């Protein structure tokens, strides 16, 4: 029963975070679509956590989500440290 509420709260938290990051990207910057896409790693990682099995093993798609989140964070770091 506790696992069900944890999954629901994770989904709600992901939706709130994605909404906030998209608003930040589209309202406060002139290239908002880039910041909106950079929010995707913060969605992929909790989704991979939700797909974890009871025996703490990940499915193949959860591993793909974690890899996408890692690549997205690397791209985010490179873009943030690029001189404009």
- Uncertain runs: none
State the domain count: 1
Number of separate strands: 0
Structural class: mainly alpha
The coarse silhouette is flat
Main β-sheet description: none
Note the total helix count: 4
The fraction of residues in strands falls at under 5%
Helix content: over 70%
Mean pLDDT: 67
Termini, distance in Å? 50 Å
SSE pattern, N- to C-terminal: HHHH
What is the alpha-carbon Rg in Å? 15 Å
Structure description:
By secondary structure, the chain is mostly helical. It has one domain (2-80). Helix content is 76%, strand content 0%. The chain is built from four helices and no strands. It has helices at residues 2-27, 32-38, 41-50, 60-80. Helix 1 packs antiparallel against helix 2 (32-38). The chain is flat, with a radius of gyration of 15 Å. The model has no long low-confidence stretch (mean pLDDT 67).
Task: Set down the secondary structure blueprint.
Blueprint: H1 2-27, H2 32-38, H3 41-50, H4 60-80
Summarize the structure.
With 84 residues, this protein is mostly helical. It contains 4 helices and no strands.
List keywords for this structure.
84 residues, 4 helices
